[in-house]
Every structure is written in C-alpha cells, then in structure tokens.
Amino acid sequence: MSRLRKGAGKAVQALAGLISLVLGLCGFFALPASYATYPVVPPNEGAPRWVRGAFHVHTTRSDGRGSPLAVARAAKAAGLDFVLLTDHNDFTPPAPTWVDGVLLVPGVEISTSAGHLIAFGMERPLEGMQRWMPSGEAVRAVHAAGGTTVLAHPVQRHNPWTDSESASQAKGFELYSADTFFRHAMRNPMSRLLPAVGAYLANPMHGVMVLVAPEPEPGERFMELAREQPQLAFCAHDAHGLPSYESVFRSLAMYLPPARVPSPLPSDAKAAAALVTAALRSGGALCSFRALGEPEGFVLEGVDPERREARVGDVLSVRLPGIPDVDTVRVEVWGEGRLGQDGTSVELTGPGVVRVEVWVKGPGRFFGSEWRPWIVPSPVRVLPRGPGI
Q1: What's the rounded Cα separation, in Å, for the pair 112 and 195?
Q2: Which of 12, 46, 289, 293 could make an S-S bridge to 41, C-beta 3.0–4.6 Å?
Q3: Hey, what domains does the chain have and what are their CATH numbers?
C-alpha cells in the first residue's frame, strides 16, 4: 500500500508540475498580449461603410455552444450586420430573421462523402439531401435549388475535400479558415497553441490573431481550381463559441460592396438576406482581418467589376484604405501577375488567374511582429489580349 501511495503521490506531483508549467507559459505570453494594440491601420475617415458579417457559424442547432440569440448578440457587440448560419446538415433551417439588430441568414454545412460543403442562398428547398451523400450529388442538388456551394476547410487534415471533380464544380473555397488555423495550432502546441491561449487570457482578439498563420497548401489548391473555372474566395469563421463568438467576429469578417448592398440593410429580413447572398456570390465581396484595420476605401482598379476579369498586359492598381505606413503594409501577388516597383500596381503577365491580397505587419506572439493577411478579395481571371491589342 505504501508503494501505491508513493506512486500516486509522484503522479500527482508530476501532474501538478505539468499544470504549473503550462500556466507559467500561458502567463509568459499573456504579459506581452496586454500591450498588443489594434487596429494596426487607422480607419479611413469618410469612406463609404461596407456591410459586414460572419460567414460559416454554428449554433446549438448542431455543435455550436451558443443559441442563435447568443450569436446575434455577439455579432452586434462586434459591430457586424449579418451572420450566415451553417449548422451541420440542417436541411430545413429557419427563414431569414432579424435578431437584436443582426440579420441571421440561413445556410447549411453538408457532410458529404468527400468532405464538408457550405451551401447558402437556396431559392427552393433542398431535395433528397442526407448525410454522407456523394459529393457530386450534393453540389448538384444545391445548384439545382439556386444555391451557392463553398468548399469548407478543404485542405486541412481533419475533414479535407478529397474529390477533385466535385471540387471543380463548387463555386467557392474557404481560403482562410479560423478552424484550420486552430487545428494547425493544435499540431504545434509550443509554437502556436500556448502563445495563443496565453494571449487570449489577456487580450481575446489578439489571442485569435496569434492563430492566424497561413500555410501554402490552401492557396496552392485554390489557385489550381481557379485556373479551371472562376472561384470565390471566402474567409470562414467556422465559429462554434470557443474561442468566443465575439472575439472571432471582432477579428475577421466578410465585407459587401456598397454598390451592391446598402448600409443599413432593408428592414425586411427576406429582402435583406437576398441582397447579402447575392453580394457574397457576386465576387465583389471581400474578406478582411478587421482586427488589423477596416478595409473601407480599398479598391482593385482595372478589373471588370461584374465579371472580375482583365486582360494580359493590363495593369491593376491597388488603392489602399487611408494612408497606411509602407513599412507595415504590403501587397502580395500570386499567379499571372507581377508587382510593380511602386508596390501597388500589378502587371498581368499571362492568361490564367491572379490573386492579389494586402498584408499587414501586426503584433506577434511575443513582443515582435508578424506579417498577416489583411484584405482578401476574390481572384481575377486574366484573359488573353484582345484583337488589335
């Protein structure tokens, strides 16, 4: 018995030591987080306000921690106008409704044989839907109902999208996903998870932003699909309530162009939801990691706004919000484009697709800084030169 007691005592001491170590490390990262300041880029005074909202959010109708009312209240506190609810396999979601001043827009996250699929904007009921149905059938059923399909967290190790044919049929792609960032941190507990947890204790929004560490695979796969057919880029909250809805909503959002969606939205929930879903599927919407700054005033000039197309030899011009510091803001280009020496012009070099984003140097995991995506529009298709050009 004495040996058992001694063994149990040593186990308790080891566990207590481990807990103390983890708490100490969290405290180590909590201190600098209390000094992290946001936004990095000051607001662009006088720019038209864009309607903003959360994309891919779960409630207690599936595996979320908060009721629709709780989600709406968190969105209101974070300054959002709408939330696209996407509870798992919720094939008969409630109609659009205003809750505490926030528009709740129905959608669904469908579990298919190849991965998870976001569907929204259906004009007719989804027919014959069931869990784990073939991915191609799910995509076609959503399109037949007048809806838009988006591949959810398509390249993460947990529930990636595994079917190439149906992937090319979907209309959108979650290029940046808060859930994917979190799962990446879980695989890197010392370098990512503990810094984020410690930062979250002192500054929840900074804790979420510490998780934002883009990997190359999503962008590479996205560009492959975009070369096959036009693709919409989405940033997904994939919010379940942990981290808190409000902290995630304050960190990023989807923004809808004022040319398409008035601010404020119409009081009629059905009409307002129709405007929101039309703007999300138009290609004119953009994502912003709003903790770094609001994107109002951003324009990618030289692009056909309806078709998001330009031609080889054209030069796109990135108009940045306000007057950002050149040492903290930079333009990133992937695909068939080359960044000019001025840092804001993009020459289109060949047919295909070009992806242009704005990145910001924000507060790092400790007292340093890290480059993170800030403004993320959908890519531009680059057409060959026209006749006589």
Answers
A1: 34
A2: 293
A3: 51-294 (3.20.20.140)
> What's the rounded Cα separation, in Å, for the pair 127 and 277?
20
Q: Which residues are CB-contacts of 49 (< 8 A; sequence separation ≥ 6)?
A: 258, 263, 296
Distance between CA atoms of 177 and 334, rounded to whole angstroms?
19
Do the strands 172-177 and 148-151 form a parallel or antiparallel pair, or are they unpaired?
Answer: parallel
- Cβ-based neighbours of 314, under 8 Å, separated by 6 or more: 302, 347, 348
Query: How far is residue 117 CA from its own chain's centroid?
Result: 15
Find all residues with CB under 8 Å of 324, minimum gap 6, and list them: 41, 293, 360
Looking only at the bridges linking them, the beta strands covering 82-85 and 345-348 are unpaired
Question: For the segment 335-380, what is each residue's pLDDT rounded down to a tens digit?
Answer: 999 999 999 999 999 999 999 999 999 999 877 899 999 999 999 9
> Tokens 């695909």 — which residue?
335
Q: Is 111 strand, coil or helix?
A: strand
Taking the alpha carbons at both ends of the chain, their separation in whole angstroms is: 91
E strand or H helix at 107, and its extent? strand 102-112
